[in-house]
Design goal:
Low-confidence stretches: none
Mean pLDDT: 94
Shape: globular
Number of helices: 2
CATH architecture: Sandwich
CATH class: Mainly Beta
Largest sheet: 6 strands, antiparallel
Strand content: 35-45%
Number of strands: 9
Distance between the termini: 29 Å
Structural class: mainly beta
CATH superfamily: Jelly Rolls
Order of helices and strands: EEEHHEEEEEE
Strand order of the largest sheet: 1-2-3-9-4-7
Radius of gyration: 14 Å
Helix content: under 10%
Number of domains: 1
CATH topology: Jelly Rolls
Length: 119
């Protein structure tokens, strides 16, 4: 690792999630950080499942929410609502959807290297 600085104004890669969001990726240090924008109406099973090809999201997330709200539902039915200022650890095996009319914008520090990457 070396001393390094990057900015989401010039991400290394941008991946669209159908018409309801995008993932902006920065490769820095030994990892990848994603700035994820989920537009109002975004639902993982509609907008990422066709890209991922799995029944639920199998990527772990360590996410910090900047704005908006999201509901996460685990495969076992456990639910969690996250919003501005929340830091959440989300294990594999979940679905998610935006709550309300405001986009949900978050920074994700885990599992972003291949998230929403076309197969």
């Amino acid at each position: 690792m070396q001393l390094e600085k990057k900015n989401f104004g010039s991400p290394d890669e941008v991946r669209p999630m159908a018409d309801k969001g995008r993932v902006e990726l920065i490769k820095i240090g030994d990892g990848v950080v994603g700035k994820v924008t989920f537009e109002a109406g975004w639902h993982w099973s509609e907008h990422v499942k066709p890209i991922a090809g799995t029944d639920s999201c199998q990527v772990p997330h360590l996410v910090y929410v900047l704005s908006g709200r999201q509901k996460v539902v685990m495969d076992d039915g456990t639910e969690l609502e996250i919003g501005p200022g929340d830091l959440a650890a989300i294990p594999p095996g979940h679905d998610g959807s935006v709550i309300g009319n405001e986009p949900c914008v978050a920074l994700d520090f885990a599992g972003m290297e291949h998230y929403a990457e076309p197969q």
